[in-house]
Amino acid sequence: MRDLAEKWSVPPDWQNATIEVPGLKTGAVTGLHQRLVSGDLAAWAEASGFDGPAVGAFGLAEGIRYSVRLARDRLLAVSTTPIGMATGWFSEGFAVTEISAGLQVFEVDGPALDAFIARGTTLDPAGHPSASATLSFAGISAIVYRHQRSLRIHIDRGLAAYLWTWMETAAANIAAGSQN
């Protein structure tokens, strides 16, 4: 039987993986706690203690705990520390699902960030931010927003090697000054 695994890229060691070219630095973010929240988001915010509104595409998230809007009734809660709330259905009208192992997170920073974004999506990062951070980026569904000075991209873990290869090519083209 033919070994189809040889067709797939071997993912790098995400703990140490970086792409660095003049004006752009990319790496994986590990250790984040991520929970998918669906339903009554106001009730969830009150019960969880997560402060502030959920950010949309290219919106600015700050701090060690924040929320990212995915849909009218869905968000992603992100924290560098454990989220002290159980998972499951809550009688207040919302559900919480642990999704940390299912999403790979990348962070991109540098003065060439706008050129990188322009290669990944047709959305204008300087325009009015979208209410939802879910968008097509590099041809795949991603959650995209700003965190501090960087751009964060959350994708399904199974697509991480693909996006990594895409980011290597984009970074090389940006470094070479290519307009492709």
UniProtKB/TrEMBL annotation:
InterPro entries xrefs: TrmE/GcvT-like (IPR027266)
Taxonomy, superkingdom: Bacteria
Protein name: Sarcosine oxidase gamma subunit
Species for this entry: Mesorhizobium calcicola
Taxon lineage: Bacteria, Pseudomonadati, Pseudomonadota, Alphaproteobacteria, Hyphomicrobiales
